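ingest -> validate -> predict -> emit
validate: passed (alphabet ok, no gaps, 753 aa)
predict: started
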Amino acid sequence: MRRLELDDHTADYWARQVRIGSTIAAVVTAIGGLRMALSWPSSSRWWLIPVAVAIVLQAGATRLPWNRLVRNEVFRRRHLLMWWLAELPFLLLFGIGDPNGAMLYLPAAILMLMCAAAVWSPRTVALLGALVGAGYAVLLPVRASLGPIATFVILAMYACLVALTAINAQNRGRLDARRHMAEQRAETLLEASADAVVAVGRDGELKYVSPSIRRLLGHDAASLTGKRLSDVIEADVTQADKTGDIQDFLNRMLALPIGRSERTETRLRNAAGEWVYVDVMGTNWINDPDLQAVVVSLRDIGERRELERQLIHQAYTDSLTGMPNRAMFRKKLEDSMATAGELPVTVLLLDLDDFKLVNDNLGHSAGDELLTTIAERLRAQVRPGDVLARLGGDEFAILMRDLDPADASGLAERLLTTAREPVRLGSRDVTCSLSIGIATSTGCEPAAAGLVCADQLLGNADLAMYAAKRGGRNAYAIFDPTMSMSVLEEAQQRADLEHALEHDEFRVLYQPVVDMHTQRLTAVEALVRWQHPRDGLLGPYHFIAGAEANGLIVPLGRWVLRQACAQLARWRAERPEAAGLKVNVNLSARQFQYAGLVDDVSAALADAGLDAASLTLEITESMLMADIEAAKETLHALRRLGVRLAIDDFGTGYSSLSYLKQLPVDVIKIDKTFVDEVHIDEDDVALVDAVAGLGQALKMQTVAEGIETDEQWETLRRIGIDHGQGYLFGRPAEPADIAALLSAETLSDPQHV
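emit:
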């Protein structure tokens, strides 16, 4: 045979065949001894002594540990073969010594060849057959007295028997080689497989362990085979949600019908003492006669578990701040509401005021830096057991249990204070504020719990937070049931405003701006009105504040800007008198802070075909001073377009002259409050006179607003104010009415406007 290492199956086969051969040899020897005792002369019966020894040795050989001995290549190929060869001379001597030896020699030799064919290669069987045949050829003429022809025939028939035995040995060898190749292939596949496979007997003994167990648990397969499962594999029994105990899993497998499978996940400790997460798939083959085991497949799922952990972490954690996100906060809130009992649950909803301006003006990276800084400050103010989450954007939430309502107010005060501390973003210090809404579970319906009350509590905190925003921001508000009505009203107003924008319900009227000396029309100020389908024509006081609060002021302001530019272009195209006419458009605070303002202005001018100097944009003092550095950047960007800039309501704010000098402003508009009594109040006269002098010094035009009487007009003209507007010269009018004024020499009779 080829020099192959014997596996368990082959070693067991060899051991069984050697024992069978030893038994047959002992029986044949015993038959020969009986023949000696009965038929041999008494002088030759001394042969019974060595024969008896041979019988004892051959019978005793069946008790040797052949499963271990045959695994020794040298023993198997030399000593065991010598045993077979040693039988031949004794068989030949018996055939010569016995009167019927020729008759007894042949069956004994055939038995020996058959035993040899069961284990040896065809070459070895042929060699033994040739040696036996040679002895038979010597024996036949001596004991059988056969002639040459009869001897040849018998030997030829014997040669056929030897050939047949060798062919059987060859066929057996091929079958063994194929079986070994199949087993080797299966073993290779099992070793290459990511799964480790073990076969466990009914008593928990490991009957087979695939080599891939080394990659999974670090154990050698041979060292585990034959041991009890519980002695070599330690499972995790601390996992409450997993099957943990592998022995319990095995017991359940034994209770299943044959061929049925069961699956579980657990942790096993490897050879290095580390835990390995495995997927366990077991199939019950304990009653199968070929297997008689439970076949268990073990797969490493450590990477999958880690990926699941990461996915869960991502699903419930905010990537920017590392805080719980909205989904996790909602889950914690529902759990708290379901188990709160008599303990109150408090939710604080926090929103950064005007955070969008930081993103628009400084970029999203600066916005992210601001959010992380604020998040760390908030984290420092809450208790370890509280849940602080980022719900998204600039919105945070805090979940607290067993908190007194008064303590919630104190916490809100601390949060407002810490948020107001300046944050350094690049080269600028930015100050932001919070609007905080507070709601407690005491406001929930008694019958509500879990999901329902969680929705109600979160909604209450949201209403309170918006109440804080309406109250001026940088404040907190505690939920009150009356807040629901005001929020509904605001929601309805927002819906109405959105509908008005979509269906062109807004109108632009124009108020004349005249030269104070010639009374000629020099400009118009665009003023928006809402033609409400139910309430009629509404002035700005009815909707501008709401649009500013909910962000619709930006698209509304963009629409007014485009309408005003387009209307001026139409006047100029229709009337030569409008060649020098200009249009003034007011900018809201949000619109001025909007990052796309310059692009909007440029697009409106381009679409209307107007030169930029035809447009004057009006900004209030308070808008400028909210962030003077950002205001300077925006104003200079607008000036680069070529548009004119005006400060509206001048005198009502708190701008300094140094800042006024730095800003690219063309027009100062004096607020109506200083015009109302300018003809009778010396202080107002002095103030307006100072503004007129300031305008002349800084080379800025001055416009007085709200002129309603001839006395006011005369006084302002005497002081030196350049331009004026008010009901004296004309109320806000339709475009057709303004067109009629263009041909008038003066506006001395403005009542028709």
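The radius of gyration is 53 Å.
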